[in-house]
Amino acid sequence: MEIDKAIKGSDDTRLKTKYNNAIYVIKRALALYSIQEVAFSFNGGKDSTVLLHLLRAGYFLHREEQSCSNGVLTDFPIRTIYFESSSAFPEINLFTYDTAKTYGLQLDIIRTDFKSGLEALLKANPIRAIFLGVRIGDPTAVGQEQFSPSSPGWPPFMRVNPILDWSYRDVWAFLLTCKVQYCSLYDKGYTSIGSIYDTVPNSLLSISNSSKKEFKPAYLLPDGRLERAGRVKRISSSDTRFSAVNNGVDSEDSHRNRMFTASVIGVGDEILFGTVEDQLGPSLCRKLHSIGWLTSQTAVVRNDIDSVAEAVERCKSTNDMVFLYGGVGPLHSDVTIAGVAKAFGVRLAPDEEFEEYLRHLIGDHCTGDRNEMAQLPEGITELLHHEKLSVPLIKCQNIITLSATNVTELDKQWDCLIELLGSDGCLVKMEPYSSKQLTTNLTDVETAQPLSKLCLDFPDLYIGCFRKSREGPLVISFEGKDSTRIEAAVEALRKKFHPGAFSEVN
Ligand SMILES: Cc1cc2nc3c(=O)[nH]c(=O)nc-3n(C[C@H](O)[C@H](O)[C@H](O)COP(=O)(O)O)c2cc1C
Ligand SMILES: Nc1ncnc2c1ncn2[C@@H]1O[C@H](COP(=O)(O)OP(=O)(O)OP(=O)(O)O)[C@@H](O)[C@H]1O
Ligand SMILES: [Mg+2]
């Protein structure tokens, strides 16, 4: 088998180790699942090209171990799926189809989105595991292992990632050692390929002094960490809105007229089990209220990357700020930062500056090859330093992750945040809310209609009702930025009923 021979004949020991590990994962998967139960997700990219040849070798070696191989590999029986998209580069499409022909791949072309495509595929076929060319540096690799069940909300299957621990250099060492074909774009300076809308050649490979823009081939990129430098950042409308606030572009006036909203997300199975009573969430709501912000939503989610990512993704574009607490640290359950990275589609990368702080705090215990605590979302993280804090706070665009574990620690972090972000417009102090509460023994039925009408007349106020008990009085609360409007609303309500129907709560 030519791939196996090429690697065994090479003197690159690192490549040999990576190859052997990947083949081991493939052979385990082929032992666990029948050939009809596995599929290979192929998209013509360099990583999936590496995986194709590893699968060819792995399948051959697997058959050999079962002593049913005659030494030649003629067919490749693993179902291969390609999600074709109109935004793919034509070179990628061409390479995918050519490769399928060369190696006799049974190509299933899917033209819907990933999730519904996989749903249909799994309904029609007994597939239980899918091989992917995901590598640890990819944004989508956050939280994955070599065998990772698909995420909640996705159809159920095992994601098998044989090259998860391969570096950019390993990928090119393999492709060049095995002398296999790869997509022509990689010889034109492309180092990682997404869609035609978000991918350009990597400027680090640009050949200077040439009148025509030319680029060196991908395998010459000296630093694999910059593999994604040719990926153009997509700026969503919400990001723009945020950056306007962030850069202090908003004028004083527009600040005053705007309603700033925040979401508060707690991460903790212990809260969901009811073992621990959440105090930080309510405390944050009070703090936000005290600076005139509106908390649009609070949530408590599980210590699970996908749960955190889903909550952050939902809140980040509809709020000015999102505050996260819980799940921060080096434990297996501390997945909050990874969830933030996944929500932004970026990878976790070691942050030397943060590591330095941790070293001061906990000594050399925090160093090593994989210091999980010093891994932060790449390219979007800003460390917020304050002399009163032993470790900076972590800000990823409009997401603040608080490491506080109790109200006293939260008070301190909050005061620092206000000092740090209050001045640059991110956590600007707004006109505080005025509020008034009335109680009444009138029934809900009697008050319902007049209150609905009052809400229509005073749309600038929050008029809410709640009870402390079913039998006790009804509490009506008025919240707003203008106290004269609150007085007017209270007066308007009183007029609708007999005198003395309401008492004021002090
Ligand atoms: C076969 C296959 C399985 C996938 N399974 C999952 C999954 O379980 N969970 C998930 O969040 N994304 C899953 N994805 C989506 C990828 O993580 C990622 O969003 C996708 O490859 C698009 O990457 P891009 O946005 O860089 O193009 C899957 C994609 C493919 C092709
Ligand atoms: N459109 C697609 N169809 C099938 N599989 C896909 C598709 N997009 C991504 N994948 C799977 O996800 C893996 C990771 O994608 P990713 O873009 O990171 O790698 P790549 O495309 O192989 O290489 P590159 O990083 O150079 O773009 C792929 O190797 C492949 O297994
Ligand atoms: Mg790609």
TrEMBL record:
Presence of keyword Flavoprotein: yes
Phylogenetic placement of the source organism: Eukaryota, Viridiplantae, Streptophyta, Embryophyta, Tracheophyta
Gene3D superfamilies: HUPs, MoaB/Mog-like domain
EC number of the protein: 2.7.7.2
InterPro entries: MoaB/Mog-like_dom_sf, MoaB/Mog_dom, PAPS_reduct_dom, Rossmann-like_a/b/a_fold
Involved pathway(s): Cofactor biosynthesis; FAD biosynthesis; FAD from FMN: step 1/1
Domain of life (superkingdom): Eukaryota
Keywords: ATP-binding, FAD, Flavoprotein, FMN, Nucleotide-binding, Nucleotidyltransferase, Transferase
Broad EC category: transferase
GO molecular function, one term: FMN adenylyltransferase activity
Domain annotation MoaB/Mog: ranges: 263-424
Protein name as catalogued: FAD synthase
